[in-house]
Design goal:
Distance between the termini: 58 Å
Largest sheet: 7 strands, parallel
Radius of gyration: 18 Å
Oligomer: single chain
Structural class: alpha/beta
Strand order of the largest sheet: 3-2-1-4-5-6-7
Shape: globular
CATH topology: Rossmann fold
Length: 266
Amino acid sequence: MAKELAGAVAVVTGGSSGIGRACARLLAARGAKVYVLARSKERLAAAVEEIEQAGGFGEVLVADVASPEELAQAAAKVRAAGESVDILIAGAGIMDLGPADQMPLSQYEAMMRVNYLGVVSTVQSFLPLVKEGRWKRIAIVSSLAARVSPPYFGAYSASKAAVTGFAHALRQELAREGIRVTLVHPGPAATPLVDGYIGGEYYPVPPGVPVISPDQVARAVWRGIQKGRREVFVPRRLAVTAWLAGIAPGAVDGTYRLLDRGKRGK
Protein backbone atom coordinates (compact mmCIF):
# COMPACT_ATOMS: atom_id res chain seq x y z
CA MET A 1 0.00 0.00 0.00
CA ALA A 2 1.49 3.35 -1.05
CA LYS A 3 2.14 5.85 1.71
CA GLU A 4 0.23 9.15 1.50
CA LEU A 5 3.38 11.27 1.14
CA ALA A 6 5.25 8.97 -1.21
CA GLY A 7 7.30 11.11 -3.58
CA ALA A 8 6.85 14.27 -1.51
CA VAL A 9 9.74 16.38 -0.22
CA ALA A 10 9.63 18.16 3.15
CA VAL A 11 11.97 20.57 4.90
CA VAL A 12 11.80 20.87 8.69
CA THR A 13 13.78 23.51 10.57
CA GLY A 14 14.67 22.83 14.17
CA GLY A 15 14.61 19.21 13.11
CA SER A 16 17.38 17.90 15.35
CA SER A 17 15.29 17.84 18.55
CA GLY A 18 11.92 18.40 20.15
CA ILE A 19 8.88 19.27 18.03
CA GLY A 20 10.89 19.64 14.82
CA ARG A 21 12.42 16.20 15.16
CA ALA A 22 9.02 14.66 15.89
CA CYS A 23 7.58 16.35 12.78
CA ALA A 24 10.46 15.05 10.67
CA ARG A 25 9.90 11.49 11.93
CA LEU A 26 6.17 11.67 11.26
CA LEU A 27 6.51 12.99 7.70
CA ALA A 28 9.18 10.41 6.89
CA ALA A 29 6.96 7.63 8.27
CA ARG A 30 4.28 8.74 5.82
CA GLY A 31 6.63 8.44 2.88
CA ALA A 32 8.15 11.91 2.46
CA LYS A 33 11.82 12.52 1.87
CA VAL A 34 12.67 14.88 4.73
CA TYR A 35 15.45 17.45 4.77
CA VAL A 36 16.17 17.98 8.47
CA LEU A 37 17.66 21.40 9.14
CA ALA A 38 19.41 22.63 12.29
CA ARG A 39 22.81 23.91 13.50
CA SER A 40 24.28 20.74 15.03
CA LYS A 41 25.66 18.30 12.47
CA GLU A 42 25.94 15.56 15.10
CA ARG A 43 22.35 15.85 16.32
CA LEU A 44 21.10 16.11 12.74
CA ALA A 45 22.95 12.90 11.87
CA ALA A 46 21.25 11.18 14.81
CA ALA A 47 17.83 12.45 13.69
CA VAL A 48 18.36 11.23 10.12
CA GLU A 49 19.66 7.88 11.36
CA GLU A 50 16.47 7.53 13.42
CA ILE A 51 14.40 8.20 10.30
CA GLU A 52 16.35 5.74 8.18
CA GLN A 53 16.25 2.99 10.81
CA ALA A 54 12.46 3.27 10.65
CA GLY A 55 12.58 2.81 6.87
CA GLY A 56 12.26 6.46 5.87
CA PHE A 57 14.38 8.86 3.86
CA GLY A 58 16.20 11.76 5.48
CA GLU A 59 18.85 14.28 4.50
CA VAL A 60 20.95 16.58 6.68
CA LEU A 61 20.87 20.34 6.12
CA VAL A 62 23.28 22.16 8.43
CA ALA A 63 22.22 25.79 8.83
CA ASP A 64 21.47 28.37 11.49
CA VAL A 65 18.04 29.94 10.96
CA ALA A 66 19.47 33.18 12.35
CA SER A 67 21.71 33.33 9.25
CA PRO A 68 19.89 34.23 6.02
CA GLU A 69 23.06 33.30 4.12
CA GLU A 70 23.15 29.77 5.55
CA LEU A 71 19.44 29.29 4.86
CA ALA A 72 19.90 30.42 1.28
CA GLN A 73 22.73 27.91 0.90
CA ALA A 74 20.51 25.16 2.34
CA ALA A 75 17.74 25.97 -0.13
CA ALA A 76 20.27 25.97 -2.96
CA LYS A 77 21.35 22.48 -1.91
CA VAL A 78 17.77 21.22 -2.21
CA ARG A 79 17.42 22.87 -5.62
CA ALA A 80 20.77 21.42 -6.76
CA ALA A 81 19.35 17.98 -5.96
CA GLY A 82 16.64 18.70 -8.52
CA GLU A 83 13.86 18.85 -5.94
CA SER A 84 11.03 21.19 -5.04
CA VAL A 85 9.48 21.39 -1.56
CA ASP A 86 5.97 20.11 -0.90
CA ILE A 87 5.88 20.79 2.84
CA LEU A 88 7.89 23.37 4.77
CA ILE A 89 7.76 23.31 8.59
CA ALA A 90 9.38 26.21 10.43
CA GLY A 91 9.98 24.70 13.85
CA ALA A 92 13.24 26.19 15.11
CA GLY A 93 13.14 28.21 18.32
CA ILE A 94 14.92 29.22 21.52
CA MET A 95 13.61 30.30 24.91
CA ASP A 96 14.90 32.45 27.76
CA LEU A 97 12.66 33.51 30.63
CA GLY A 98 13.15 35.97 33.45
CA PRO A 99 12.21 39.35 34.93
CA ALA A 100 11.89 42.04 32.25
CA ASP A 101 14.32 44.39 33.98
CA GLN A 102 16.97 41.72 34.58
CA MET A 103 17.13 39.93 31.25
CA PRO A 104 19.91 41.35 29.06
CA LEU A 105 18.83 43.05 25.86
CA SER A 106 21.02 40.56 24.01
CA GLN A 107 18.61 37.76 25.00
CA TYR A 108 15.63 39.72 23.68
CA GLU A 109 17.52 40.25 20.43
CA ALA A 110 18.57 36.58 20.17
CA MET A 111 14.98 35.37 20.47
CA MET A 112 13.80 37.82 17.85
CA ARG A 113 16.60 36.72 15.51
CA VAL A 114 15.84 33.02 15.87
CA ASN A 115 12.13 32.81 16.68
CA TYR A 116 10.86 35.58 14.41
CA LEU A 117 13.45 36.60 11.84
CA GLY A 118 14.48 32.94 11.55
CA VAL A 119 10.95 32.12 10.38
CA VAL A 120 10.94 35.05 7.95
CA SER A 121 14.31 34.01 6.49
CA THR A 122 13.20 30.38 6.28
CA VAL A 123 10.14 31.38 4.27
CA GLN A 124 12.11 33.74 2.04
CA SER A 125 14.71 31.07 1.30
CA PHE A 126 12.40 28.12 0.64
CA LEU A 127 9.24 29.78 -0.72
CA PRO A 128 10.40 29.59 -4.36
CA LEU A 129 10.76 25.82 -3.92
CA VAL A 130 7.36 25.54 -2.19
CA LYS A 131 5.77 27.36 -5.13
CA GLU A 132 7.14 24.61 -7.38
CA GLY A 133 5.93 21.79 -5.12
CA ARG A 134 2.78 19.71 -5.47
CA TRP A 135 1.39 20.02 -1.94
CA LYS A 136 2.24 23.70 -1.37
CA ARG A 137 2.00 23.61 2.42
CA ILE A 138 3.76 25.71 5.06
CA ALA A 139 3.39 25.09 8.81
CA ILE A 140 4.79 27.64 11.24
CA VAL A 141 5.24 26.67 14.88
CA SER A 142 4.44 29.57 17.19
CA SER A 143 3.33 29.09 20.81
CA LEU A 144 0.36 29.53 23.10
CA ALA A 145 2.60 32.18 24.69
CA ALA A 146 1.95 34.34 21.62
CA ARG A 147 -1.66 34.65 22.80
CA VAL A 148 -1.31 34.13 26.56
CA SER A 149 1.72 35.87 28.05
CA PRO A 150 2.51 34.74 31.60
CA PRO A 151 4.87 36.64 33.91
CA TYR A 152 8.56 36.37 32.91
CA PHE A 153 7.65 35.40 29.33
CA GLY A 154 7.92 38.93 27.94
CA ALA A 155 10.83 38.39 25.57
CA TYR A 156 9.73 34.94 24.40
CA SER A 157 6.06 35.90 24.02
CA ALA A 158 7.00 39.00 22.03
CA SER A 159 9.05 36.94 19.57
CA LYS A 160 6.23 34.44 19.13
CA ALA A 161 3.63 37.19 18.78
CA ALA A 162 5.72 38.54 15.90
CA VAL A 163 5.72 35.06 14.34
CA THR A 164 1.94 34.90 14.70
CA GLY A 165 1.39 38.24 13.01
CA PHE A 166 3.70 37.27 10.17
CA ALA A 167 1.97 33.91 9.66
CA HIS A 168 -1.51 35.44 9.51
CA ALA A 169 -0.42 37.95 6.88
CA LEU A 170 1.54 35.31 4.94
CA ARG A 171 -1.49 32.99 4.82
CA GLN A 172 -3.58 35.64 3.08
CA GLU A 173 -0.76 36.72 0.79
CA LEU A 174 -0.02 33.20 -0.47
CA ALA A 175 -3.61 31.96 -0.74
CA ARG A 176 -3.88 33.39 -4.26
CA GLU A 177 -0.99 31.09 -5.28
CA GLY A 178 -2.61 27.99 -3.84
CA ILE A 179 -0.22 27.81 -0.88
CA ARG A 180 -1.80 27.05 2.48
CA VAL A 181 -0.19 28.30 5.68
CA THR A 182 -0.99 26.64 9.02
CA LEU A 183 -0.07 28.41 12.26
CA VAL A 184 0.49 26.08 15.23
CA HIS A 185 0.23 27.11 18.88
CA PRO A 186 1.51 24.35 21.19
CA GLY A 187 0.90 24.63 24.91
CA PRO A 188 3.56 23.52 27.41
CA ALA A 189 5.54 20.74 25.74
CA ALA A 190 8.21 18.43 27.15
CA THR A 191 11.08 19.43 24.87
CA PRO A 192 14.70 20.51 25.39
CA LEU A 193 13.48 24.09 24.84
CA VAL A 194 11.95 24.21 28.33
CA ASP A 195 14.57 22.20 30.20
CA GLY A 196 15.34 23.94 33.47
CA TYR A 197 12.27 26.15 33.23
CA ILE A 198 9.03 24.19 33.15
CA GLY A 199 7.45 23.77 36.55
CA GLY A 200 9.94 26.24 38.01
CA GLU A 201 9.74 29.81 39.25
CA TYR A 202 9.45 31.36 35.80
CA TYR A 203 7.31 28.67 34.16
CA PRO A 204 4.58 27.42 36.49
CA VAL A 205 1.98 25.28 34.76
CA PRO A 206 -1.59 26.16 35.82
CA PRO A 207 -3.74 23.30 37.16
CA GLY A 208 -5.54 21.48 34.38
CA VAL A 209 -3.07 22.52 31.68
CA PRO A 210 -1.35 19.38 30.34
CA VAL A 211 2.32 19.10 29.45
CA ILE A 212 2.21 17.53 26.01
CA SER A 213 4.76 15.49 24.09
CA PRO A 214 6.53 16.51 20.86
CA ASP A 215 4.77 13.63 19.11
CA GLN A 216 1.37 15.06 20.09
CA VAL A 217 2.33 18.37 18.53
CA ALA A 218 3.66 16.65 15.40
CA ARG A 219 0.37 14.81 14.92
CA ALA A 220 -1.54 18.08 15.29
CA VAL A 221 0.78 19.76 12.78
CA TRP A 222 0.15 16.94 10.31
CA ARG A 223 -3.63 17.16 10.74
CA GLY A 224 -3.43 20.91 10.18
CA ILE A 225 -1.39 20.40 7.01
CA GLN A 226 -3.75 17.70 5.72
CA LYS A 227 -6.88 19.77 6.27
CA GLY A 228 -5.34 23.11 5.33
CA ARG A 229 -6.29 24.62 8.70
CA ARG A 230 -5.44 28.23 9.34
CA GLU A 231 -4.65 27.85 13.02
CA VAL A 232 -4.10 24.88 15.32
CA PHE A 233 -3.92 24.79 19.12
CA VAL A 234 -2.37 21.81 20.88
CA PRO A 235 -4.34 20.52 22.71
CA ARG A 236 -7.42 21.95 21.03
CA ARG A 237 -9.07 23.16 24.23
CA LEU A 238 -6.31 25.74 24.68
CA ALA A 239 -8.01 27.71 21.91
CA VAL A 240 -10.57 28.67 24.58
CA THR A 241 -7.75 29.87 26.84
CA ALA A 242 -6.36 32.01 24.02
CA TRP A 243 -9.81 33.43 23.31
CA LEU A 244 -10.36 34.21 27.00
CA ALA A 245 -6.98 35.94 27.21
CA GLY A 246 -8.06 38.20 24.36
CA ILE A 247 -11.45 39.23 25.72
CA ALA A 248 -10.82 39.00 29.48
CA PRO A 249 -7.10 39.42 30.23
CA GLY A 250 -7.92 39.91 33.90
CA ALA A 251 -8.88 36.23 34.13
CA VAL A 252 -5.38 35.25 33.00
CA ASP A 253 -3.85 37.74 35.45
CA GLY A 254 -5.90 36.21 38.25
CA THR A 255 -4.75 32.69 37.41
CA TYR A 256 -1.08 33.62 37.66
CA ARG A 257 -1.62 35.67 40.82
CA LEU A 258 -3.11 32.57 42.44
CA LEU A 259 -0.16 30.49 41.28
CA ASP A 260 2.25 33.06 42.72
CA ARG A 261 0.43 33.11 46.06
CA GLY A 262 0.52 29.34 46.14
CA LYS A 263 4.30 29.35 45.65
CA ARG A 264 4.87 31.97 48.32
CA GLY A 265 2.57 30.12 50.70
CA LYS A 266 4.68 26.94 50.58
